């Protein structure tokens, strides 16, 4: 067996003895003989060994462990190559509010808004931005969100902070604040730059920022970056150039005092550090609602994986799933846990937790890769996403091997073919090929449910976009403030495949 190895004698002697020990330790006197015979048969069946890198050198246990290890690292390593296919197109990025080009205003030409008239982002009143007193409290606002609840069977919109009706006068007071979102204005406060090309850039990082209200809008006050093993590689407080009006401490966990005492870098400084630690234009940056973070950093970057885009809200934009809800539903991980604070309940927020959580989603979604279509593991797959347009026959051929398939997502072409067929032949065929199938989604917004009835197969259509009032819709239950796990396609046990 080892004839082609340079040190064949030593290797053969060592492995033979180790193999014997393995058998001896795993058997009793009465099973030793048959175990040895079995092992001998396996040894004879091994693939020929051509050189010392062959995967079939060693004892049976060594080889098994080596295979398991290879499989694990294949399926769970986040690399550029196995994540590239999930990167959104520039058009998608733009739709989600990403800045995809350096804006054509003069970068940093108007760093501060002091003296300018602005609309307060909390109370909507117009006010003049001042450099002065932090203790000002002429703004009355709610620091919670409007949520829909049922009171005596009737739906009503109340504020999460104080449970009063939406539109009631604010329960908190503080200074007026403003924020700018359009690329041109942001660029005037501080200029955007592109991530530089680096030859030794990291494959994947996850990133989360905290922002504070300043006299130039929202400014970066903390940056946390983790590598693909979720180890912190950068976590710094950042000193904004303009005066901090409100550090947003309840949500960011960052206080003005902390920034004043321990922030070393300013925006330009922290960006250089970010690039120095290996973030380049090729690096895939992972995050949730990452456009806010990148805008705070004033970085134009296109290799993005945003869990808000990967897991779109069933009602479509402008609604987005919160990271907290997504993590609970998809990962069964409970983050930003509600902590009681001054009588009200708020979601606390840690940039480290957020950043590493977004990575967890990717481990989930890249676990089942297209190569697995030909392996036995498809039996575990619950959701199948068909990314291209195979013929119905090709699809039907592979389906019987998916023993636990619940849902399948098809291209519009294939779905139309199946569901516009008045004879229901294709539906029956689909059902027959995969009896566990319960839901067929098509084009991302239309859900078909396949129901087994005694009278035969029926299917129902719900089209989410048919709802006029997205806020209060009883037909499809798509209120943006109530989260619909049933319409969410779970990435867990999900296989994306192009036939
Ligand atoms: Zn309130
Ligand atoms: Zn205000
Ligand atoms: Zn965050």
UniProtKB/TrEMBL annotation:
Q: Name one GO molecular function term.
A: nucleic acid binding
**Which family does the similarity line name?**
Belongs to the REXO1/REXO3 family.
Identification of the protein by name: Exonuclease domain-containing protein
Which SMART domains did the record assign? EXOIII (SM00479)
Q: One GO BP annotation here? A: negative regulation of gene expression
Record key words, sorted: Exonuclease, Hydrolase, Nuclease, Nucleus
Where found? Nucleus
Residues in domain Exonuclease?
203-371
For this protein, the record's SUPFAM superfamilies field holds: Ribonuclease H-like
- Where does the secretion signal sit in this chain? none
Sorted alphabetically, the Gene Ontology cellular component annotations on this record are:
nucleus
Coiled-coil ranges per the record? none
């Amino acid at each position: 067996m080892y004839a082609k190895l340079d040190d064949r004698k030593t290797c053969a002697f060592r492995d033979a003895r180790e193999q014997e020990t393995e058998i001896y330790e795993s058997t009793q006197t009465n099973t030793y003989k048959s175990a040895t015979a079995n092992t001998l048969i396996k040894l004879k069946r091994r693939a020929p060994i051509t050189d010392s890198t062959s995967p079939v050198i060693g004892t049976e246990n060594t080889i098994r462990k080596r295979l398991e290890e290879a499989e694990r690292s294949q399926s769970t390593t986040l690399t550029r190559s196995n994540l590239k296919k999930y990167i959104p197109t520039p058009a998608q990025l733009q739709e989600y509010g990403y800045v995809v080009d350096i804006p054509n205003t003069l970068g940093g030409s108007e760093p501060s808004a002091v003296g300018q008239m602005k609309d307060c982002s909390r109370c909507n009143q117009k006010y003049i931005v001042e450099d002065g007193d932090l203790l000002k409290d002429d703004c009355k606002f709610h620091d919670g969100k409007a949520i829909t609840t049922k009171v005596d069977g009737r739906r009503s919109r109340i504020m999460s902070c104080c449970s009063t009706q939406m539109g009631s006068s604010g329960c908190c007071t503080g200074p007026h604040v403003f924020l700018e979102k359009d690329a041109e204005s942001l660029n005037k406060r501080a200029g955007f730059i592109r991530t530089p090309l680096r030859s030794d850039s990291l494959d994947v990082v996850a990133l989360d920022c905290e922002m504070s209200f300043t006299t130039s809008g929202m400014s970066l006050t903390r940056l946390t970056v983790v590598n693909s093993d979720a180890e912190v590689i950068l976590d710094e407080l950042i000193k904004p150039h303009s005066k901090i009006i409100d550090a947003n401490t309840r949500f960011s966990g960052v206080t003005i005092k902390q920034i004043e005492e321990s922030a070393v870098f300013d925006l330009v400084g922290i960006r250089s550090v970010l690039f120095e630690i290996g973030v380049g234009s090729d690096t895939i940056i992972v995050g949730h609602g990452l456009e806010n973070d990148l805008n705070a950093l004033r970085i134009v970057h296109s290799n993005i994986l945003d869990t808000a885009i990967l897991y779109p809200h069933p009602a479509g934009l402008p609604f987005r799933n919160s990271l907290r809800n997504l993590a609970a539903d998809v990962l069964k991980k409970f983050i930003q846990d509600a902590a009681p604070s001054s009588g009200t309940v708020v979601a606390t927020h840690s940039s480290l937790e957020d950043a590493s959580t977004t990575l967890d989603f990717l481990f989930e979604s890249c676990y089942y890769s297209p190569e697995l279509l030909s392996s036995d593991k498809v039996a575990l797959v619950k959701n199948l996403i068909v990314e291209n347009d195979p013929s119905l026959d090709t699809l039907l051929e592979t389906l019987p091997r998916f023993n636990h398939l619940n849902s399948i997502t098809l291209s519009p072409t294939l779905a139309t073919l199946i569901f516009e067929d008045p004879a229901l032949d294709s539906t029956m065929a689909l059902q027959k090929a995969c009896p566990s199938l319960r839901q067929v989604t098509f084009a991302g917004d239309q859900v078909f449910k396949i129901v087994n009835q005694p009278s035969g197969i029926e299917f129902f259509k719900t089209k989410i976009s048919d709802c006029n009032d997205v806020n209060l819709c009883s037909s499809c239950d798509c209120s943006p403030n109530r989260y619909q796990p049933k319409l969410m396609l779970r990435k867990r046990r999900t296989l994306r495949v192009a036939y």
